[in-house]
Amino acid sequence: MRQTVRRLHVHTSSNVGFLVWLLREFGDSVYKRIKAAYPEEAAELRRQILVICFEQANRLNRLKNPFPVALMALPMAEHALMFPEQILGADDARF
Prior knowledge:
about 100 residues, 5 helices, elongated, mainly alpha
């Protein structure tokens, strides 16, 4: 499991796509399992997940043009801010 935590730690510098993969691959209880076994790594993973989601929400909020992507930006930004709760749970998902 520790090797998995290290591998996840390496991938967290990418983007929200990683988080989707994380949920799909390991299920929504992966963070709880990591937190129970490796609290220090879990704290860093939590911080990185929150940063990824917050940066994605900010990026989407800055889109201001008439193209369809910009029209979908606000709902996508709101989803990015709610995404940590799916991974981390309600207690650890606070920014």
